[in-house]
Amino acid sequence: MSNNTRNGSLANAQILLAVDSMCSLFFSMAFPRFLLHSSLEESNHSFLEISVFMLIASKIIVYYSLAPCGDDFTLVVSRGVKGVGFGTFVFYVTAVLFGAPVIELIWGTILLSALISGLVVCPVALLCTNLQEGISNACIRVYARMQPDTMFEVNLLYTGIGTLIGSWLGAIPIPLDWDRPWQAWPITIVYGALFGYTIGVLFAAFWPGMIHKGETTKQE
């Protein structure tokens, strides 16, 4: 791969990272607050419903516009929805296994799972133009095996890991006997996921070479 091709790929990936991260953070936190005139603590489920819908819609539009997702918008939307559905199921089961209520507060758990899926799985699904690989295998390759094929996927590895670690850390304050409104399920995990996502964006923006060097060496 030539230096010009690498630089172009990196530049395109960083443009997508910047636009996508700004849209994701705006539509997941600022837009619902503006629309409802209340915070996540005050309008828990209503806030998250708007947040999840706008996050996923913005991901689909941004990736279709700036990433190599294919030319058919209908197929891109279909992949995005399938990715969110698959990820929501996986993260819901994971949350329950880690102690989330199975029946009680189920809607909050589903919304939390959908939000994390929108940040972690949906982007991989949107970039998954290889029908033989499939969304689940693409997620395993990027996140579990840490073998991103492109700079777009390198950035997703950073933001995905950040989101998952942030979600895990965000669960720590919930069982503490402080009786604060922000300890209600799943508020702290939502904040943790978005904070971790933001940290992942910063790493992807300023230190993309930590993973890309390995990919470049392999290609050469």
Q: Would you give an account of this structure?
A:
The protein has about 220 residues and is an all-alpha fold. Helix content is about 75%, strand content about 0%. It has 8 helices and no strands. It has helices at about 5-35, 45-65, 75-95, 105-125, 135-145, 150-170, 185-205, 210-220. Helix 4 (about 105-125) runs parallel beside helix 7 (about 185-205). The radius of gyration is 17 Å and the shape is globular. The N and C termini lie close together (about 5 Å). The model is unreliable at about 1-10 and about 210-220 (pLDDT under 50).
Describe the structure using short key phrases.
mainly alpha, 220 residues, disordered N terminus, single chain
* Average residue pLDDT: 88
Number of strand elements: 0
Radius of gyration: 17 Å
Q: State the low-pLDDT regions, or none.
A: 1-8, 212-220
DSSP summary: helix tally? 8
Strand composition percent: under 5%
Largest sheet: none
CA(first)-CA(last) distance: 7 Å
Question: What does the overall shape look like?
Answer: globular
Alpha-beta classification: mainly alpha
The helix fraction, in percent, is over 70%
The topology string of helices and strands comes to: HHHHHHHH
In short:
40% of the residues are buried. The protein is globular, with a radius of gyration of 17 Å.
Question: What is the secondary structure topology, with strand pairs?
Answer:
Blueprint lengths: L2 H34 L7 H23 L6 H25 L8 H22 L6 H11 L6 H20 L16 H20 L2 H11 L1
Helix pairs in contact: 1-2, 1-7, 2-3, 2-4, 3-4, 4-6, 4-7, 6-7
